Amino acid sequence: MGSHNIEPLNMMNPLDPEEFRRQAHLVVDFIADYYSNIEQYPVCSQVEPGYLTKTMPKSAPLRPEPIETILQDVNKHIIPGITHWQSPGFFGYFPSSASTGSFLGEMLLTGFNPVGFNWLASPAATELEMVVMEWLLKLLQLPESFSFSSDGGGVIHGSTCESFVCTLVAAREKKLNQFGTNRSDTLGKLVVYCSDQTHFSLQKACQIVGINLSNVRSIKTKMSMNFQLSPDALTMAVESDVRAGLIPLYVCFTVGTTPTTAADPLLILSEIAKRFDMWAHVDAAYAGSACICPEFRHFLDGVEGVNSFSFNLHKWFLTTQQCCCLWVKDRTDLTKALSTNPELLKNKASDTNKVVDYKDWQIALGRRFRAMKIWMVIRSYGVIGLQEHIRKHVKLAKHFEALLVADNKFEVVVPRNFAMVCFRISPFALATVANGCSDEESNRLTQALLESLNGSGLVYMTHAMIEGIYVIRVAIGATLTDEKHVNMLWDMVQGHVSGLLAK
Ligand SMILES: *Cc1c(COP(=O)(O)O)cnc(C)c1O
């Protein structure tokens, strides 16, 4: 506790406009330089665990430090520990696409830094969110029933997981109210359905909202059925639960699953949900972006039959983290489950029910002005620019897929729906094994191929296990990825696979 004899900093003004201008320009230059040099960095960070905790000072600095010194340390200590998701050689997971429009929107929203929990707390934050959600609704040709002009509406959440939690709570409260009486008894009987391809965060959301994990049915899918959720399997599972006295609550369909980008048939599945009075949600976290192009919109056919729909702008829509757009068909389902009305926030606009108070559509009270970022992105690129962005990556994925198909050393394991290709080394690639090697041997070789490609630092991809088969997922969607990067990847795949097969 020696700090009591430190001189005070009489001159500090953390929001001096001229100092802001000077320092912010330095940071803008720093980021621009980062993007100019991005291909020089290993795509996946190669540091060892604890690298930073070992080198950083053990306690916070007492005195202010100049931005120049801090930026030097970003270069020296932080960048080596970054996995460069914006690198054109990044093909891992799903993309997290950035853009100038998004960066500038982020600056503006942080510049104002309002906390728009209700309309009055910043009318522009709420109303711009309603505007961009209506724009996106039209772009995706979502049904009018999801619009603010009928009983629905849209909200920006931080993540798909939050959208799962909020729609599950809405469904839970609706169901518990229907059953009235014994809440805890009914709660224990509620069942949630999904497929074994559904994103794992649905299970987390079920844990959060108090669904018995033994009542979460993960229905098995098959490669021969392109990993779609089978209407018959769903019906059978629900019927068997109903016979056992359980209560179907919620079912999640996915358009663009995480392992393979499979798309569930919404039209027929939503009919089943209605028949059993379940809440149906569509998770199109990754693939929703593609559906702004008319040639992909058919993947959403049937969405008019579900209760809610969400997709992540922060994956493939040139928008930085974190923006998950959620629409519901009946906004009162959400607000009945999530609203609070503390004395502290009482105001005329809210009392007369003339406004949307987004605090009642989400988990937290406080919220960022994310609509500013989305508005900037859409205006900066226009619908045509956004569609071109999607189509460019789809075209590159088709190109990469064609190269694989033409080479009998490889197998494209599942059909490509969007801009991700799943492949493995074919069991027939080893000339020494006439009848083809086993899946295990192919798995081992494919895994070794992925590790050697990633080890180069020039590219980065991730994998999935599907029906016992190890596949390399090539997710094309980084904003800077061009044909030359995909061709480089192909040359590398060729080089590394010959090395492996020669061993
Ligand atoms: C990425 C992904 C998620 C998780 O999204 P978060 O916004 O990170 O929670 C959920 N579902 C699918 C299909 C995804 O691809």
From TrEMBL:
One of its GO terms (biological process) is amino acid metabolic process. Keywords: Decarboxylase, Lyase, Pyridoxal phosphate, Transferase. Its cofactor is pyridoxal 5'-phosphate. InterPro entries: Aromatic_deC (IPR010977), PyrdxlP-dep_de-COase (IPR002129), PyrdxlP-dep_Trfase (IPR015424), PyrdxlP-dep_Trfase_major (IPR015421), PyrdxlP-dep_Trfase_small (IPR015422). The modification N6-(pyridoxal phosphate)lysine is found at K315. The keyword Cell cycle does not apply. GO terms for cellular component: cytoplasm. SUPFAM superfamilies: PLP-dependent transferases (SSF53383). It holds the Pfam family Pyridoxal_deC. One of its GO terms (molecular function) is pyridoxal phosphate binding. The keyword Transferase applies. Coiled coil: none annotated. Signal peptide: none annotated. This is Putative tyrosine decarboxylase 3. Belongs to the group II decarboxylase family.
